[in-house]
């Protein structure tokens, strides 16, 4: 795993190209260290995760992660928890996460990509849910991720057939935001990361939290939750939306439909 922190952006690259960036127990430990470093640095507002070579990630390293540990239940459960715990940390990151899907993205690799807030893929990226071919179900949150991103018919089609699909199809069914030609992927994600890193971090995190919560609420409860988080955000930012952004808007110093305000 390679980590690079560039001011307000952090870039994680899974670095096992000979294994299509399959996730081994060591890689899971390395991911914890990377997230520790990002948290310790404190300024990163955006995390971009991608894979080296022709793959995002081929999922779990079945030999190192499962075959080497499954006969020892305690060891297997410890290893599984280490894997799941860094994925929880990624999902709950106090900022925005983006997956840059550059090639093979199957099984657990699809889980990692899907747990990110945004996903941009190469048009020719290869996605797959091959668990049916092993006579098992997608676990560790993968079924949950698919159910929360993909419409039922499309989800069950790929879950039950195990067929591969490309980046364009992934965008069509809602698994990724959009696709670009592979040669343009890195520059596209780099520009997107810069754009989002320039936004107010408190507001971005609040938007994430409110979105996730309100999907499980009725309308009236959702309005109450939104208002509570609105005033919490206003306090955390010292009313920046009112005293800075709205003041600039009243002077026609920026157009919110096209650009952001200029923080003081």
Automatic annotation (TrEMBL):
SUPFAM superfamilies: ClpP/crotonase. InterPro entries: ClpP/crotonase-like_dom_sf (IPR029045), Enoyl-CoA_hydra/iso (IPR001753), Enoyl-CoA_Hydratase/Isomerase (IPR051683). One of its GO terms (biological process) is isoprenoid catabolic process. Signal peptide: none annotated. GO terms for molecular function: catalytic activity. Belongs to the enoyl-CoA hydratase/isomerase family. This is Enoyl-CoA hydratase.
């Amino acid at each position: 795993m390679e980590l690079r922190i560039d001011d307000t952006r952090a870039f994680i690259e899974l670095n096992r190209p000979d294994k299509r960036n399959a996730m081994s127990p060591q890689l899971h430990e390395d991911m914890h260290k990377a997230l520790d470093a990002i948290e310790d640095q404190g300024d990163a507002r955006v995390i971009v995760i991608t894979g080296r070579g022709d793959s995002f990630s081929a999922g779990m390293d079945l030999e190192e992660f499962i075959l080497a540990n499954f006969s020892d239940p305690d060891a297997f459960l410890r290893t599984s928890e280490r894997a799941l715990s860094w994925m929880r940390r990624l999902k709950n990151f106090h900022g925005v996460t983006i997956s840059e899907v550059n090639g093979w993205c199957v099984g657990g690799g699809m889980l990692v990509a899907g747990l990110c807030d945004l996903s941009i893929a190469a048009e020719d990226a290869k996605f797959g849910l091959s668990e049916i071919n092993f006579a098992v179900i997608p676990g560790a949150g993968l079924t949950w991720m698919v159910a929360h991103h993909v419409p039922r018919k499309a989800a069950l089609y790929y879950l039950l057939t195990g067929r591969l699909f490309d980046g364009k199809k992934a965008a069509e069914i809602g698994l990724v935001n959009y696709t670009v030609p592979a040669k343009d992927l890195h520059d596209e994600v780099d520009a997107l990361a810069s754009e989002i890193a320039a936004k107010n971090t408190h507001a971005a995190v609040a938007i994430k939290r409110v979105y996730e919560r309100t999907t499980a609420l009725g309308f009236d409860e959702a309005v109450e939750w939104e208002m509570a988080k609105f005033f919490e955000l206003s306090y955390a930012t010292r009313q920046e939306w009112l005293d800075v952004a709205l003041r600039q808007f009243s002077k026609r110093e920026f157009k919110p439909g096209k650009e952001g305000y200029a923080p003081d």
